[in-house]
Design brief:
4 helices, two-stranded antiparallel ribbon, three-stranded antiparallel sheet
């Protein structure tokens, strides 16, 4: 089993994150509501995923670990590079961007 996500250089992570954001933004332009609903979904997960070195696992309202699409995609990239941006007024998903250290694209 390949574990490329554990050995990518920073530049490789940035390139992959930018590619994923470009694809996700394409989908947002096609069906914003569907993508927003997909990104909002979380499922309970076990300690194996919680302890994975790159998957991002938040806690739900009951303080149980859960994972969603962005936690999986950021795990694939190898860290927290992909961010969903929402409208502050209406909560609607606007777009995805790649966080590159102190810079966002």
């Amino acid at each position: 089993m390949s574990k490329a996500h554990l050995s990518r250089s920073h530049n490789e992570k940035v390139t992959l994150a930018l590619d994923i954001c470009e694809f996700l933004n394409e989908l947002v332009n096609l069906d914003r509501n569907a993508v927003q609903q997909l990104v909002a979904q979380r499922v309970p997960c076990n300690e194996g995923i919680v302890n994975h070195p790159t998957a991002q696992v938040p806690m739900d309202e009951e303080l149980s670990p859960c994972i969603g699409l962005l936690g999986v995609l950021n795990g694939l990239v190898g860290g927290g590079y992909i961010v969903a941006v929402y409208d502050n007024d209406n909560g609607q998903l606007q777009y995805f961007l790649a966080r590159l250290g102190n810079e966002e694209k």
